[in-house]
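ARCHIVE RECORD
Type: protein–small molecule complex
Small molecule: FE2/S2 (inorganic) cluster
Source of inputs: curated submission
Record status: active
Notes field left blank by submitter.
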Amino acid sequence: MKRKTLLTLVALVAVAGVAVLGVVGRMVLQPGPYAFAGGRPVALSAYRGPSPTGVPAELALADTVTRGAYVASMADCQACHTAPGGQPFAGGRAFVLPFGTIYTPNLTPDPETGIGNWTDAQFLNAVHRGIAPDGSRYYPAFPYPSYTLLSDEDVLAIKAHLFTLKPVKQANKPNNFGFPYNQRWLMAIWSVLFNPNERFRPVPERSPEWNRGAYLVEAAGHCGECHTPRNLMQALDQRRKFGGGVAEGWTAYNISSDTVSGVGDWSAADLAAYLSTGHARGRGVASGPMAEAVELSLSRLTKSDIGAIVTYLRSVPAVKGDLPVPAGPAPSTPQTVIDNPVGKRIFEGNCASCHAWTGAGAAREEAQLTGVRTVNDPSGANAALMILHGSGAGTPYRPAMPGFGKAYSNDEIAAVTNYVTARFGARASKLTAGDIGRLRDAN
Amino acid sequence: MTAITVNGKIYEVASEARTPLLWVLRDELGLTGTKFGCGIAQCGVCTVHVDGVAVRSCQMPVGTVGQRAVTTIEGVGSTTVGARVQKAWLDLEVVQCGYCQPGQIMAAAALLAANPDPDDNAIDAAMSGNLCRCGTYVRIREGIKHAARS
Amino acid sequence: MPLDPEERRDGAGRLSRRSLLRGGAAALGGLVLGISLPAKRARADKPRAVGAAMNAFVHIPTQGSVSLIMPAVEMGQGVYTSQAMCMAEELDIGLDQIEAIHAPPDREHYGHPIFYVQATGGSTTTMAWTEPLRKAGATARAMLVSVAAAEWNVPAAELVTERGVITHTASGRALSYGEVADRAGRLQPPTDVALKSPDRFRLIGTRARRIDTPDKVVGRTVYGIDVIRPGMTFAALMASPVLGGKLDHVDEAPALAMPGVRQVVVLEDIVAVVGDTTWAAEQGLCALHMTWSPGANASLDQARLWADTETASTGPGVTVRKEGDAAGKLAAGKRGAGTLIEASYELPFLAHASMEVQNCTVHVHDGVCEIWVGTQVPGYAQAGAAQVLGIAPEKVTVNNHLIGGGFGGRLEAAPVVTATRIAQKVAGPVKVIWSREQDIRQDMFRPLYHNRLTARVENGRVTAWHHRVTGPSILARWLPPAFKDGIDSDAIDGAAEPPYALGEMLVDYVRHENGVPFSFWRGVGPNSTVFSVESFLDLLARKTGTDPVTFRRGLLERNPRALAVLNAAAAKAGWGSPVPQSPFGRRTGRGVALMHAFGSLLACVAEVAVTDGGDVRVTKVVVAADVGRVINPDTVVAQIQGGVVFGIAAVLHNRITLAGGRVEQSNFNDYRLLRINETPAIEVELLSSTQSSGGIGEPGTVIVQPAVANAVFAATGTQLTRMPLDASLIARSV
Ligand code: FES
Ligand code: FES
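STRUCTURE (tokenized, with ligand):
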């Protein structure tokens, strides 16, 4: 009896072990970020086409300052390394992760608190391998598994750009992670498994434009960090590339070429407009972290680079998602039977002025709700976050859509989100006050 | 140069296309009956009609107005429903400081034009975007019903 | 500017632009009747004829409308009409025959009979000005009549006046006021003219049409923000996000690169951008990156503000009223007779949030300064601008305008001072407009107040009562002479003399200031005191198992006037009947409140519905009011209705909070006002009264807040003691 139990146990453990190995193996041994393209990638030095790295051809003759700033924009360093209302690049921005809060460090050339004393080798080591000058490891909230693809030249161009900034004396804030996540040495193991530590390898079989796009999306823009789902080990699941992920509580939607859940039915012009301005007609407005990506990175890229990104994005295979087919326009008057009076009350007071009862947008096209993914997403998460925090590439003092989180209760935010998704979306969300409380905390 | 039609008159506008219609009306054309209150579509004091539909002019880039007819408080009295609303407002003494009232009247006129006999639900739907700090809401509701009956 | 402002102003600027004194009465011709105010106490009881350059209330031109000069400003409360009614009543003219003109800054002649300074506020206009203005009208009429009597050689008593015409019925002769005005102006005015007896009133007490409304419904009224001057530019401004902070650095270049931007004005605490339109200026402002030194307020957080006030409330106070030995009686604690109950009520900072944002147009040139603004304090505005410029006040012209909502927010000269500081650096007239965000963040707020109440109840009666008010003193700054013996008579108004018999009584006051700028706000002191007293009475009633109306009746045996008001409201609201069910929430309740302040008595019954999520909807409000003699009953009803809406917004939504010295609210998305779809039915019953007129601008705001809070208490069993109501505290887990 005892023996049998033991045997069973051993067998079970063995099976479990194999299973775990299998799962982990599958997580580790996954395709590269652009393996879907096939072909035979070659080293940059061996590539014969126009260089996919550096600045675009239009800026080839620009001065070094302009070129450095451009490469830094491509990699979008500023968004994460600036605290709300703080000095650009001085760090201090908090990221609430499932295991604790992380604060970005100061990237200005202040010798004491910034990176003023860093050597080129130290900087390269940090960006490519996630290793700090003192040998400690960065958490992959710093997207070095993507940045590792950047050419040495581009990494050093970023460094040169940072060294042109005015030094800001601002000490880094310590992260507060609980055990075991505060064991940074674990990150060394993680890095071995998930950071290939190799530079971008162009695919000669693909067009130069595609290669430039691949470099911008995978190396500099690190789009997958938000838009690709993560596995249990918190690494990107490249088999479901661009199938959608999470960023600071926001849903980063599917940007594969799936026609319902992804951007497969977006025209090239839609994509280009959305990326460079944060809005395309009928596609909604970039919000949350995406708004920052547009403001501080994508909107600063040249037309040719946006075109390259679009070319690359449209080549990414479809990953099925679970978003429903969007609903059409709503009627021009409110319904007569009101099942959600609180939601209706807030919509008619605060929302209808811009969005109109039809959802077509009253005074400007950015306000159109019809067909927009956020309102057709039955989770309602992004809609609720937009209502809580506001949205849109507005001026610093006046966002295109104001946030209502400060003065409206969780109950009210839930009610109006459910009202909006019911009226303008394919399926109503069923958010509760508790859900809204969690969304508030996630941000 | 953009051209827009306001109260039946054509104006050449020098402001750049992104400028909200509100500031073109007020600062460039001198039509100050349309008010500024929030700039974020939360108060309705800037309401005008664009092809008869109530629109917050603080949100509408002047470059998107195109051929559509803009009507402001200065011109709405020449429409039957506008005149009826203005009269109802006088009959019931709706107005206090009056600052929000151009917007209220424009919203009410658009409502009545689309729905000649609105119930409370329809009034809430059309008028809740218009704030009144003086608190004239009770009379606004009565005023709309009064205008509907007249 | 394609526009000729003068052309546009034709007709439109009637109420606002013409200044009688600037033109001079000689230029206008006719009779100018002034009332000079004795230097010490501003009472208009010694009328005499004055020359063209003197002040005046009544001006009779040889032809056309009679000009009435309005000492109190119109900001929606209807005083243009009620002041005009008082003058026109005695003058025997129709309201359609008058032209209302703003009084210029001139404290000697237009100084408020109660405040002395020239100001409109505190619900005092009717109280203060009714008699002087009637007298002005009656005296003018007597002078006009005496000219006609002399001409026709008949006794003045035989002449009748109507609609500006003097008639001798017996002989059928008639003269218009205009025809005799010049000669009347040269007479020595009589000093003892009798006023009409109330039974002969033709205007006072009627539902007269407001004189300012026709222009308002067609968009013709020119508020301060609507002023257009030739060559005018527009300025947008930004002050330190941390209150009181100073500018460190700004690079002007990005703003100057924007289309339509002309100039960046950098002051030590403000950056302004001047442009061709308000929009251009604002875009320029947004393009700037400014760095600020936060200064002393950087650590000002809301939790600390609440805590500091609470702590101050336990320190020494100044006694306001003491009857018997309340302190002794209460000190016995729980061991004493009856029930001892204690509670504190806290009220937050509030912004005024008038629909018309702060604005001011200023033209500084050739050693003079011209100002166009809507202000409740033209004299302070003039003095403030003069001080900025270092010139004599006479060099500053204030053209006052109708106001798009005052509520106390225009009882301060600060915006005029700011605009003048900017305009000083700008060539030509400049209109400075606060964005809504700046209007809210740079407001001077309704103070944060703390009220601590302790009472002993024995056999359903209050036998000892202690009310301590803690808060800043507005009067100490605004009207120093009114801050006497360490007591701010506004802050304790409503606490010192409640309408109830409360046994042995102690009322005291702790002045506590906290670095946040503050000022008057509709409802003023009684907002905090009446809220606290009425909330506390409900707590006493509940703790002693008594119905809140019955409990109050027991305390009103010696105050029949108040009791009548309470009973009227209770009866009208169906007090005692079950509260109807509501689609707006499963929990419903009814609350009552009573007040005596501003010379008026009001009782209010509110009904609410509360959702499980804690959202409160006010479903019905009934108010009964005894406001003394009424000039225009419709205006009184309108003011109560509007005041109620204003008060519901306060009790449900309004809140200004600070974090790191920054105001956390910015616009109507986070500083919530009431909307029409949240507005209940509001029924008002005016009790007829021959007592002297009380104020009516503020009481509606004051009285509805405790009524709603008490209704929520009744509906949920939870009394919320810190305003505004917090949904999370009355949410019910389901
Ligand atoms: S100013 Fe346009 S809605 Fe408030
Ligand atoms: S009447 Fe004053 S804001 Fe509406």
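CURATOR ANNOTATION: Chain B touches chain C through 60 residues (CB under 8 Å).
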